[in-house]
Amino acid sequence: MTDKELIESIRDRPGLYTLDGTYYATVMLVVGIDLGMSGRLLDGWRDWLLARKGEPNSRMWICLVLEDAFPGAGIWHWSHLTQEQQQHAVDHLFTLLIAFLSERDAV
Question: Would you state the pLDDT for residue 52?
């Protein structure tokens, strides 16, 4: 299974991975997978997000995804998200991560 296929599997069957639909839980699973892979999953991820944004930023990737999901809203922390926003943030994370993995693996 490729990294992209793994992320698609998590996106398509979150219950199988004991996810509760929150951004925090999803991020922690992705971070755990990355740690288990010795950083291979997310290698270049933050740089890719910054290049996409087109401006320098010192925030962690977790916050960069939220900024991208809610442009101009000033949402940088998952604790401020409504249930609907949680789902949007999770969906956006998967969209970005799959796009990143597709580009990374095409090289």
Answer: 92
The pLDDT value recorded for residue 107 is 76
- pLDDT of amino acid 56: 86
Q: Give the Cβ contact number of residue 31 at 10 Å.
A: 14
Residue ranges for the chain with pLDDT beneath 50: none
pTM (two decimals): 0.93
Q: Catalogue the long-range contacts made by 18-24 (C-beta closer than 8 Å, 24 or more residues apart).
A: 21/83, 21/86, 21/87, 21/90, 22/78, 22/86, 22/90, 23/66, 23/78, 23/81, 23/86, 23/89, 23/90, 23/93, 24/78
13 CB neighbour count, 10 Å cutoff? 10
Task: Assign 81 to helix, strand or coil.
Answer: coil
Question: HEC profile for 33-44?
Answer: HHHHCCCCCCCC
Cβ neighbours of residue 42 under 8 Å, at least 6 residues apart?
30, 31, 34, 61
